[in-house]
Amino acid sequence: MPLEGVPLSPKPEILTVDEIIRLTKIFANLGVDKVRVTGGEPTMRKELPEIIQGISSVQGIKQVGMTSNGIALSSKLDNLIEKGLNKLNISIDTLVEPKFEILARRPGFKQVWKTIDKAENLFNMLKLNCVVMRGINLDEVVEFVRLTQTRKLDIRFIEFMPFGGNDFAMNKFVPYKEILTFIRTEFGEIQKLEDEKNDTSKGFKIPGAKGKFGFITSMSEHFCGTCNRVCLHGNSEVSLRDAIREGRTDSEVEEVISRAVYKKKKQHAGIDQLMKLTNRPMILIGNPNRFIYLLRPFIPSLNFVSYYSSLTHVDEDGKASMVDISSKPESLRIALAQAKDFQVAPEIMKAIKGNNLKKGDVLAVARIAGIQAAKKTSDLIPLCHQISISEVQVKFHLNQIESSVIIFSRVKSRFYTGVEMEALTSCSVAALTIYDMCKAISHEMSVSDVKLLGKVGGKRNVGTIEIPDNLSLR
Q: Is residue 319 in some structural domain?
């Protein structure tokens, strides 16, 4: 809470219970299955049990979580769990009561720990959020971790980040690796836990401990590019409240959400820039337009959008666009692709090796098809550039023991953009041509594992561009 306090939101500006449930249904229809209620402070809302029950009753929602300061939660907890709450985070930055009152701008330390003691036995793993600040609570990190040895707690250390009213200064910022060094010095061996693909926290554990701890490295090692949650602190967010109050249909609101997700950045600005930006106090995130945020949007049709910043074929509105390469320097471009596991029936392998198919020489036709496909890639892949190709090599290895064909395609050009797609298309079409040439004998064929082995040219070189010389090639 900023020292000067915050203005209260007029009731008409806050989402109603029905609006919250409607938005939850819209998100669930898009593939969201986890919802977190945040604030401000959720327990300030008298309809909280009704909101939790409404969210948990939406088809497709598997998890309903909440982040709270814990002060007024203890007496409400049983009812909220009965209504469907199954995940809980409690924010607490210190284990020292006088310091708590300074940081929270109010008393309540004992009430928070009363909630923690109760909640620990009601949830599979209770999470405690702790923002680490040099000169304020860095010296308490070890004691927080010590709690995990005997208690079922997941302590999440959050890097201090600039927000309006939080008096951010670089001399208070502590990168997670420094915090980890403090912990290792005290406990010695630390077990690194395997994180999920889209986790925002790096997990660790003291061997034999009941609980665990982790780091949310929002400043020193950004994770926006792999995070699949809706960003909470952007100044360019959209108002879903306004969208539904304007009378938009569910489909139209879905379109608003889709556009917003498409615009999600790969990473936030650096510390130097964030310190100069005007940003709301953390307690005002969610006001006045929202009471809840629906997080972890597992949207199958939009699953790639978290990475949109690195997708050069997607513009800021989420629309497909061709990349302008006119300003790029011309350079040598080479790419090598492979179709590694083209399984064929034994009788097909015998016919290919003996070159006795009625349609003719299978490998010769497939080679021509592969070369032609490389030259025609821009006709097949909509946003590929028409490239002046210098050379295409298509080679085959017949593995009689495993009854499989390995196909290599190496494409070369001097141009402004790479030839990876040309090599991959060449391999794929060569494989399909073999299928077409041999299907009269048997349909027992499967094409799989088509991949890029390497490329040179452009910003970086990757892998290898040389066809293996230890194989018998045709």
A: no
